Amino acid sequence: KVSKQIATVPIQRLQTKNAVRNTDSVIKMREYLIKRIELLKNKHNNICNPHITYDRIFKECQIDASIKMQSSRYKEQISKILDVFVQQGYIKGYEVYKSGNRKVGVKVAY
Question: How far apart are CA 87 and CA 82, in angstroms?
């Protein structure tokens, strides 16, 4: 997706293969998360909502998560990517938030 914006990030942000395999879907999700976190960190943007829904991630990355087993796996992969970002000091932390018993998304502390 063309956004006409450039954000420079250190190469280690892209190195998550120790936590999760670099499949097409993982690469897309990682890039989307980096893009979204960079938008949150940039004070010149008026994006200040730290909540990122799984549905939005799947839609933006063009990932079909309609099967429950696949959806669970993708959500685990997102958590592993965010765990790496925490270890790298890129974000302070994150938490999974729910609506009822259903995991809806993540809230990023940056």
Answer: 9
Report the 10 Å Cβ neighbour count for 30: 24
Q: Is the pTM of this model over 0.85?
A: yes
Furthest C-alpha separation in the chain: 39
DSSP 8-state class, residue 92: S
Contact 80, 16 (CB under 8 A): yes
The list of the chain residues with pLDDT below 70 reads: 1-10
Taking CA atoms, 12 is separated from 27, 31, 80, 89, 107, in Å, by 14, 13, 15, 11, 22
